[in-house]
């Protein structure tokens, strides 16, 4: 491993690393050799370094690192910069600028898997790890500054000077004086995967024995055909699904179901608001992958009929409308109507479903649904529900115990209960599909008390219209993504869809483990937008949130209405929303967010017809 040390004061830190097996040390400082030699013990440390085979360089500017190394020797596995400072009484702004230029310079000489270690005095970094924590504006904002160069904070731990043999800090106000390092922290940064700017895409499918193409909504381009549930997948969502199926097979005979469930649903789903589903454009010929075509799918104002359906011209006639399937329930009902369906057996269907929704912590525009279907004799449906829930509960408890020691509570709440009046997005959409009897809620106990339960599934029954007058069908719908999150301690649903290999590496062979984030304390950025709503139109908030998802690549984590005003004379309505941008896995800079905000303003003006203020 090649180690590069910057800003050494008396080279005592470098000397402590020299001689370690398998390392090659390059130690540098900003001052000349003559200046450094006047510092206490510097000459001795430099001699030790050279005798140990290390390279020692002087007058090295940390903001121009590639200038000091030929291309063949330009890549380092680890870069150390302990207690950077502009010198003398420079303020936080100058030191932020120094760090920003340093990180950009480091990116040019660091290996792809390399690390950048930055030690800062207590409070300087501006992260929650600092105790006490400074106000943001009075800190060096190290994570936000590093994000500008494509780095994320992956680890932070105390800088224990007393454990470093021979180390003595120096350089207080550019003098040969020590300074307080009590409470200092070492921040370890790694490269982030780049922000995704996905090109519009179309998919080829076979529909009614005819090959057709459909335009993928831009917000779903990076989430279509990811194969989380395929046999060779190690994704925790698949592990949860397989464990649940195995547990249920102990109580019910399972019936194999054709896994080729159509990705598109034809027509309208009764009771479901058309603005909550992703309608798409079909074509017998390949659709050009253009931004204009992608926006046509998102907005489609001119091509919709009175019900909001997209009209598609195929072979001289208007076809039925298609949308990306928002639920597996219609396919479960089709399974029941098959002549091969055997009452008493349990059929399991699973796959991704797609729904437009507001931006909230547990609202997902795509997730993997698992539907269990069983037909039983009338009067025995209660026993069937209890058996289903018991086996689901046993399976989830078993999975959770292998991952975490904190307690878990799974409850069955009646749909008429007052506790379920404030439904989360998943439960609210399920309520639109058909009547629900029970909600399956999951609570974790992490701090001595159970947090508010999260709805992870619903149970409904259907009577004689599906099978016969003597049977009742029990259907259980589960959100596999939510289950995987709660079991493995994944706090952000977007992490399940990350392209960063450091996520799946934590689940070798599909083994469920407690997830440890590789991006700590990601910076957040706030922008406001205000506009006049078109006269006489109802403002479509779901479309507003969907545009925010699309233009930011899912970087918007919160949208809040902070002001509403109606002009007395004209009756025009003005709305002001606050958007919070934050990434869970990638470096996100303030400049990138500013560009997203400008694009967002442009798209809501074009797509929703609002007048920006």
TrEMBL record:
Annotated transmembrane regions: none
Annotated localization: Mitochondrion matrix
Gene Ontology annotations of biological process type: rRNA base methylation; translation
Domain of life where this protein originates: Eukaryota
Substrates-to-products reaction catalysed: tRNA(Phe) + L-phenylalanine + ATP = L-phenylalanyl-tRNA(Phe) + AMP + diphosphate + H(+)
Gene Ontology CC, one term: mitochondrial matrix
Keywords associated with the record: Aminoacyl-tRNA synthetase, ATP-binding, Ligase, Mitochondrion, Nucleotide-binding, Protein biosynthesis, Transit peptide
Entry's Gene Ontology molecular function annotations: ATP binding; phenylalanine-tRNA ligase activity; rRNA (uridine-N3-)-methyltransferase activity
Xref: InterPro entries: aa-tRNA-synth_II/BPL/LPL, BMT5-like, Fdx_antiC-bd, Fdx_antiC-bd_sf, SAM-dependent_MTases_sf
Domain FDX-ACB as annotated: residue spans: 520-613
Entry's EC annotation: 6.1.1.20
Homology family: Belongs to the class-II aminoacyl-tRNA synthetase family.
Protein name per its UniProtKB record: phenylalanine--tRNA ligase
Native source species: Galbula dea
């Amino acid at each position: 491993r090649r180690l590069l040390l910057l800003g050494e004061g008396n080279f005592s830190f470098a000397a402590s690393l020299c001689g370690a097996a398998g390392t090659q040390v390059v130690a540098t400082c900003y001052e000349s050799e003559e200046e450094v030699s006047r510092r206490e013990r510097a000459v001795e440390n430099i001699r030790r370094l050279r005798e140990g085979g290390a390279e020692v360089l002087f007058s090295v500017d940390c903001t121009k690192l590639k200038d000091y190394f030929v291309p063949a020797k330009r890549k380092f596995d680890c870069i150390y910069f302990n207690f950077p400072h502009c010198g003398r009484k420079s303020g936080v702004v100058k030191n932020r600028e120094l760090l920003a230029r340093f990180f950009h310079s480091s990116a040019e000489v660091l290996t792809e898997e390399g690390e950048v270690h930055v030690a800062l005095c207590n409070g300087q970094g501006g992260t929650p790890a600092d105790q006490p924590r400074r106000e943001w504006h009075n800190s060096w904002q190290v994570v936000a500054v590093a994000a500008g160069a494509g780095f994320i904070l992956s680890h932070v731990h105390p800088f224990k000077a007393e454990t470093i043999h021979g180390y003595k800090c120096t350089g207080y106000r550019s003098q040969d004086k020590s300074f307080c390092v009590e409470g200092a922290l070492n921040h370890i940064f790694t490269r982030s995967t780049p922000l995704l700017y996905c090109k519009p895409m179309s998919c080829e499918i076979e529909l009614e024995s005819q090959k057709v193409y459909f335009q993928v909504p831009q917000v779903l381009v990076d989430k279509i055909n990811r194969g989380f549930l395929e046999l060779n997948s190690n994704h925790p969502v698949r592990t949860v699904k397989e464990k649940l199926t195995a547990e249920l097979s102990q109580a019910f005979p399972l019936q194999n179901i054709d896994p080729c469930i159509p990705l598109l649903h034809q027509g309208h789903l009764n009771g479901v608001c058309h603005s909550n589903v992703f309608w798409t454009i079909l074509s017998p010929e390949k659709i050009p992958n253009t931004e204009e075509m992608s926006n046509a799918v998102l907005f489609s104002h001119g091509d919709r009929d009175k019900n909001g359906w997209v009209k598609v011209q195929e072979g001289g006639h208007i076809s039925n409308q298609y949308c990306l399937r928002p639920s597996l329930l219609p396919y479960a009902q089709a399974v029941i109507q098959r002549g091969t369906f055997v009452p008493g057996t349990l059929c399991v269907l699973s796959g991704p479903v797609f729904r437009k929704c507001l931006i909230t912590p547990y609202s997902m525009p795509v997730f993997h649904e698992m539907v269990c279907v069983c037909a039983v004799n009338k009067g025995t449906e209660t026993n069937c529900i209890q058996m289903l829930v018991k086996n689901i509960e046993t399976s989830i408890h078993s999975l959770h115990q292998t991952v975490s020691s904190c307690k878990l509570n799974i409850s069955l709440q009646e749909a008429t209960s007052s506790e379920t009046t404030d439904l989360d997005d998943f439960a609210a959409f399920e309520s639109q599909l058909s009547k629900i009897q029970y909600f399956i809620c999951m609570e974790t106990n992490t701090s001595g008390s159970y947090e508010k339960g999260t709805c992870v599934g619903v149970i409904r029954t259907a009577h004689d219209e599906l099978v016969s007058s003597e049977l009742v069908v029990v259907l259980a719908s589960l959100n596999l993504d939510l289950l995987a999150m709660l079991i493995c301690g994944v706090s952000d649903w977007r992490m399940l869809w990350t392209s960063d290999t450091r996520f799946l590496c934590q689940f070798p062979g599909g083994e469920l483990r407690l997830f440890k984030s590789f991006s700590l304390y990601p910076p957040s950025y706030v922008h406001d937008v205000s506009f006049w709503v078109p006269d006489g139109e109802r403002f479509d908030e779901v479309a507003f949130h969907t545009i925010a998802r699309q233009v930011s690549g899912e970087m918007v984590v919160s949208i809040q209405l902070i002001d509403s005003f109606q002009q007395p004379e004209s009756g025009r309505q003005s709305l002001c929303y606050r958007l919070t941008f934050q990434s869970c896995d990638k470096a996100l800079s303030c400049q990138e967010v500013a560009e997203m905000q400008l694009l967002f303003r442009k798209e809501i003006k074009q797509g929703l017809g609002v007048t920006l203020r």
